């Protein structure tokens, strides 16, 4: 099992910058803005042959009594409980604060291996500048610069040495290591974090009745019935005109990246607000990205029969382009209806990655043309010869023939319906491309 290292400290000391440096990614949003990280953020890292897990946490206020800071403190305490060693990150330039003393008091009571890390120490001489940090009574101070990478290797070596962890990483066990990346997307405050917490059976993500609580795309490993998943909680997407803060613009980018990198996207809609224009925009982006999609109507228990009827009509009109997607009604808060989602997610993933043999595709194409031939376009009628698979996730079918530029959109939808039915494609877009053979006599006089 890999050792776990948690990064803890007050806001804006550079924990997320250090996390990105260790994991060699840009998974954590970084900006000169306190309180940006709110959830626990896990990532894999390596030093030589030694592998370990890093947890990025939000700014820690041990005595936070209420509101979002109380929820953030709960996340940090959970990260510390899971960690084998804690890196207490301090700001070498700002010096010691009362909040640093509060965090140190909390860590001392746990009697867990802890290292003091003085970040932003680039250009500073050792000694007097961070001597005050020894007041915390947690041992030696390690100066680093997360932004420039100075001292980071020595810091990790010291942390791993405290664990006396073996250098050789264990060989992975043979088996199916396919990890399905599932992104939960939707508008702010529709219950995305609440749903993931309900699946996990713990308050893994900050769920608070405040739009915009989640600001980053948080990935959480999960296993169900032997299948491994990576659950991705995304920041809520607002209309472009409503995005004012620079931080929120970063969040939108991270959310769009998470959707593009996912295998399946669960589109969450708030039943109490109906299907809005923004829901349709998000659904459109998922479709343009070619991701498999499952739709869940959350807070279904909070509306009456008349509202449910109106909602169904709204879905039929505004999300008509997602007819292929399975649709569920759930209550994440009461954990109602969330189990059946997994069957639809598995079907959507299987459909998105299904292999379609060329002989079968060609036979289906010939049967479709025999049943209903494409209409004549100009002087010629499109002639389709054979079809083959051009890609997966989403599935792409390439049809070859002559004069195919004249195939109408209606006939394209007709072919899509035939292929979907034959291969039982559920929850995934299907793209059909036409390639017209060139005439070898076009250049002849």
Automatic annotation (TrEMBL):
| Alphabetized Pfam families for the sequence | KH_dom-like, MMR_HSR1
* EngA-type G domain boundaries: 3-167, 180-353
In which residues is GTP 2 bound?
186-193, 233-237, 298-301
Q: Name one GO molecular function term.
A: GTP binding
- The residues that the entry says bind GTP 1 are 9-16, 56-60, 119-122
Provide the alphabetized UniProt keywords.
Answer: GTP-binding, Nucleotide-binding, Repeat, Ribosome biogenesis
Q: Name one GO biological process term.
A: ribosome biogenesis
Give the superkingdom in one word. Bacteria
**How does this polypeptide assemble, per the annotation?**
Associates with the 50S ribosomal subunit.
Similarity annotation: Belongs to the TRAFAC class TrmE-Era-EngA-EngB-Septin-like GTPase superfamily. EngA (Der) GTPase family.
Q: What does this protein do?
A: GTPase that plays an essential role in the late steps of ribosome biogenesis.
Q: What is this protein called?
A: GTPase Der
Species name: Tepidicella xavieri
């Amino acid at each position: 099992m890999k050792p776990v290292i948690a990064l803890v400290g007050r806001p804006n000391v550079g924990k997320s910058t250090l996390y990105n440096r260790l994991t060699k990614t840009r998974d954590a949003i970084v900006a000169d803005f306190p309180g940006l990280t709110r959830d626990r953020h896990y990532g894999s890292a390596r030093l030589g042959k030694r592998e370990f897990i890093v947890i990025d946490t939000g700014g820690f206020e041990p005595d936070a009594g209420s509101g979002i800071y109380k929820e953030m403190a709960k996340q940090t305490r959970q990260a510390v409980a899971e960690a084998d060693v804690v890196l207490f990150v301090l700001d070498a330039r700002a010096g010691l604060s009362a909040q640093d003393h509060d965090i140190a008091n909390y860590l001392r009571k746990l009697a867990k291996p802890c290292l003091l890390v003085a970040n932003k120490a680039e250009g500073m001489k050792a000694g007097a500048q961070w001597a005050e940090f020894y007041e915390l009574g947690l041992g030696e101070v390690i100066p680093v610069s997360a932004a420039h990478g100075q001292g980071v290797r020595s810091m990790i070596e010291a942390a791993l040495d405290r664990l006396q962890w073996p250098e050789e990483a264990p060989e992975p066990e043979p088996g199916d290591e396919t990890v399905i990346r599932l992104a939960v997307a939707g508008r702010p405050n529709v219950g995305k974090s609440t749903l993931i917490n309900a699946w996990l059976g713990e308050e893994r993500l900050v769920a608070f009745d405040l739009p915009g609580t989640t600001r980053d795309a948080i990935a959480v490993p999960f296993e169900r019935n032997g299948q491994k998943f990576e659950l991705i909680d995304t920041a809520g997407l607002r209309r472009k005109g409503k995005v004012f803060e620079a931080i929120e613009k970063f969040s939108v980018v991270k959310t769009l990246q998470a959707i593009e990198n996912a295998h399946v996207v669960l589109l969450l809609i708030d039943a109490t607000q109906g299907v809005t224009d923004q829901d349709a925009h998000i659904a459109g982006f998922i479709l343009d990205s070619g991701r498999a999609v499952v739709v869940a109507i959350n807070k279904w228990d909070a509306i009456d029969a008349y509202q449910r009827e109106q909602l169904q009509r709204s879905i039929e009109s505004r999300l008509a382009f997602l007819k292929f997607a399975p649709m569920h009604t759930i209550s994440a808060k009461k954990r109602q209806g969330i189990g059946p989602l997994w069957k639809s997610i598995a079907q959507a993933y299987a459909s998105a990655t299904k292999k379609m043999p060329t002989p079968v595709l060609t036979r289906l194409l010939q049967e479709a043309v025999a049943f209903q031939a494409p209409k004549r376009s100009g002087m010629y009628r499109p002639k389709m010869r054979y079809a083959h698979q051009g890609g997966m996730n989403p599935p792409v079918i390439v049809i070859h023939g002559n004069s195919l530029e004249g195939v109408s959109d209606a006939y394209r939808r007709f072919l899509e319906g035939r292929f979907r039915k034959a291969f039982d494609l559920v929850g995934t877009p299907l793209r059909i491309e036409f390639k017209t053979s060139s005439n070898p006599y076009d250049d002849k006089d």
